[in-house]
């Protein structure tokens, strides 16, 4: 199979779909890889590094899209990239379609085979291709939140861990999944007071076993959520409903009643955000203020640490890329029910139930679509 790796063009996005080591693995399996010039420049890989790994370089994204049977990216394709997709071409990347009607419409029109990293599942019920970036984003959320609390960024002027004789900041983490667990790990390490809310007793038990008295675990009722958000210095939104738009758990009224200078970091912004006042921002202009509360809602948080993020992502995606290339997409999907769960749009049909429900499209089960 001929696999194409274009350069990412989202604002301040320096990650790349495949590193040279991944290219070498595909070439060893008998496949051909073409890479847009300078695609890996943001994380220190030159065109020569890719050539040494067995890839060929193309000087434009147009040529990569025109030639490749499968496009491997990191972020969702922007409008100009979607216009280059061809019928039957495989797109393997993060999509986050539920809050994004224009992208979904364009992918339907393209009749491409669109497999989303974030909805591929595993036998354990986890999301193995989303987890690496959730780990990065969870850890970064505390760094970002700490900066938002500085007075120069309109925050309360607090140090997360305090100092002897001065209380630490109170960090409230909504959601005890991969994002929440990694955020808690960083927050505890910085000496903050940490509260984690979740609706799963099993998750709360697991967090209690991991952190003990270092964190406070709370069942997420409406009353408990409001109580802890209003008393927080920093709130991290780490809620995930796989494939669907994130629920708006923190209302605009709650934001208005928070402490002046408090901060919120919405890690769920890729799926529309879990704060009612959230709107996607970029690394170039990451924050805004509503009712004296600093909002950090960057939609590609791991892009700020692209080298770490790219290697973490490649470790997870490479086996799937090889499998699709070796078998062809149809057999690879038929043989792996978990990869099949990643199929969001197939030749003009919406094959992810959550996306169809959120955006009002007819849902076609992926297995049915493949056999139609």
Main attributes?
372 residues; alpha/beta; Rossmann fold; 2 domains; 8-stranded mixed sheet; 7-stranded mixed sheet
Q: Could you walk me through the main structural features you see in this protein, from its secondary elements to its overall organization?
A:
- The chain has helices at residues 20-28, 47-52, 61-67, 79-82, 101-110, 131-148, 178-189, 201-211, 222-230, 252-256, 306-327, 329-335, 337-340, 353-359, 366-370, and strands at residues 2-5, 32-36, 56-58, 70-72, 90-93, 113-116, 170-174, 193-198, 215-219, 234-237, 263-266, 287-290, 293-296, 343-346, 349-350.
- Helix 6 (131-148) crosses helix 7 (178-189) and helix 11 (306-327) packs across helix 12.
- It contains 15 helices and 15 strands.
- The strands form two sheets. An eight-stranded mixed β-sheet has the order 3-2-1-4-5-6-14-15, with helices on both faces.
- It folds into two domains: 2-119 and 306-370, NAD(P)-binding Rossmann-like Domain (Rossmann fold, 3-Layer(aba) Sandwich), CATH 3.40.50; 131-299, NAD(P)-binding Rossmann-like Domain (Rossmann fold).
- It is of the alpha/beta class and 372 residues long.
- The longest helix has 22 residues, at 306-327.
